[in-house]
Amino acid sequence: MRLEEIQKALREEKLDGWLFFDHHHRDSIAYRVLQFTAGSIVSRRWFYFVPAQGEPRRLVHKIEAETLRELPGEQRLYAGWKELLEGIGTTLGGAKKIAMQYSPDCAIPYVAMVDAGTVELVRGLGVEIVTSANLVQFFEARWNQQQLEDHLEAGRRVDATRAAAFQRVSDALRRGERITEWQVKQFILDQFRSHGLFTDHGPDIAVNANSSNPHYDPQEDHCSEIHRGDHLLMDMWAKLDKPEGVYYDITWIGFCGQEVPSANHNIFNIVKDARNKAIRRVEDAVASGAELRGYQVDDAAREHIEVAGYGSYFFHRTGHSIGTDVHGTGANMDNLETHDVRKVIPWTCFSIEPGIYLPEFGVRSEVDVFVDEQRARVTGEAQERIVLV
């Protein structure tokens, strides 16, 4: 367990401690942050308190006394609910302000793992509870050097697959062959496997009105054919097929013809410029050492689209954290679905992917941005013009 690192982070956040709680393995974050496996079944509640200073304290049920055996600290046992209440108070040891996996108004659902009743119980002891969201991303969302290298390599392979997929559609149209969204999806998945890549679902291949559904997922019996004159969106994500691999996630736009219609061209440029404004917002903040929060990046992209008159057609956040899961536990670039006040911290990665979704077609332009202590950078190719397929 990384006790010293956790306690240092608690002192920086000016907290008295971090109270971890679980019942029936509801909070996977707790096990990952504390880096342990339960020593018994978890059919009873356990609490583990890490103070900003001093030794941690454990509270477990008498019939599951081995649950927290891997973790340091003195242990207290309980059986009845009165012993539980007394035990929580003793475990907290007079702490007044603590973190838990809680999010005010459920603004950040990814960390809202503690039920309302348990929050009420702890507050009833006179304790102030704040969200652990910033702490969680510090321990969950930061990459190491090897993960960055793996991400860059995954990006090279995914970018090559994306180019090959557009070429596959082009070849089929030129030869007059029938080709569907589903077939392109299977082509990409075959390419991923042959290039040592893994994805848990997707990709999203969508033409025309289908591309206006950001989570469209073509199926063999429910997909569209791709024809000349079609607008084509490709959204794909994958990671190296290895432990602790991290994802690379992109969206590109194509048009099946020799000249892009002006309407498609106009919408693409608005989205592209919104993407670039959000990127610059991150780059400028990191270069100057200024504090940056997720909602501010969303504001940079969304304002541009709203000024252009398409605000109501951009109905998702600007970006999401990226890690070993394609949607990670770090700060999201979001001031629409949630007001994400988490800091953008070094050694994290996230997507920037504004979109405009009209009834006839949708446009999204997605890149990944990695931040370290000195700079922010787009980690792969950024689309500057619509691909002519």
Encode the helix/strand succession as letters.
HEHEEEHEHEHHHEEEEHHEEEEEEE
Cα distance spanning the termini:
53 Å
Which residues sit in consecutive blocks of at least 5 with pLDDT less than 50?
Answer: none
What fraction of the residues are assigned to beta strands by DSSP? 15-25%
Large-scale geometry? elongated
Fold-level CATH name of the largest domain: Creatine Amidinohydrolase
Tell me the structural class: alpha+beta
What is the gyration radius calculated from CA atoms? 24 Å
Number of domain units: 2
Q: What is the CATH architecture term of the largest domain? A: Alpha-Beta Complex
| CATH level 1 name of the largest domain | Alpha Beta
Count of extended strands: 17
Q: Give the helix level as a range of percent.
A: 25-40%
| Mean pLDDT across residues | 97
Give the count of helical stretches.
9
Describe the strand arrangement of the main beta sheet, using strand numbers: 4-3-2-1-5-6
Largest sheet at a glance? 6 strands, mixed
* CATH homologous superfamily designation of the largest domain: Creatinase/methionine aminopeptidase superfamily
Oligomeric grouping of the chains: single chain
